[in-house]
Amino acid sequence: MSTTSRTSPLAVGTALAVAVRAVAAAALAAVVTFALDHSAPARFGLIVLGGYLLLQAVVLVLCSSGLAWTRAGRGLVLLRAAVSLAGGVVALTGIDSGISLLRPLEALVFLLLGALEIVGGLRRGERADLSGDAVVVGGLQVLVGIVLIVLNPDPLFATGVLSAWGAIVAVYLGISAANIRRRSARG
To answer: CA distances (Å), 93 to each of 11, 18, 72, 113, in order?
Structure first.
């Protein structure tokens, strides 16, 4: 006699939302890593940053119900989407501004997004299975913002930090999505 456990639709939606975020971060890391032309690193960095932020805004809007249970939690997810959208638009409209826009914009957007994600993760009553992810990913975003403010002003460095963050977050969220799915199938 075999026993089958059914995965709840809520858990599937949550795992899918986290997996989609992981794929977006992996795409960011892959684009930077495998780009052939790094001759204009600040311009390239702004294009990649802008593209990622726009993609993230779409992902956050489409996945908001899988990432938060409460109205306030979904509001924070949508606020992160709005910050991402605004940052993406600024990055893409200012692609010729160079490092004078790349570093401060990347730092500001990552500080804001990280702080909002940490707040969402620490909110009582929100998704306990996602709160640790939110604090870790938000903390990494804040760390990127601080690193960009404190360290090297080189545009290649700023783009590389963005890629490294994307790779780390992609792996972290990919593992998290698999764990959420596995826990829900057992429980």
So the answer is: 38, 29, 31, 20
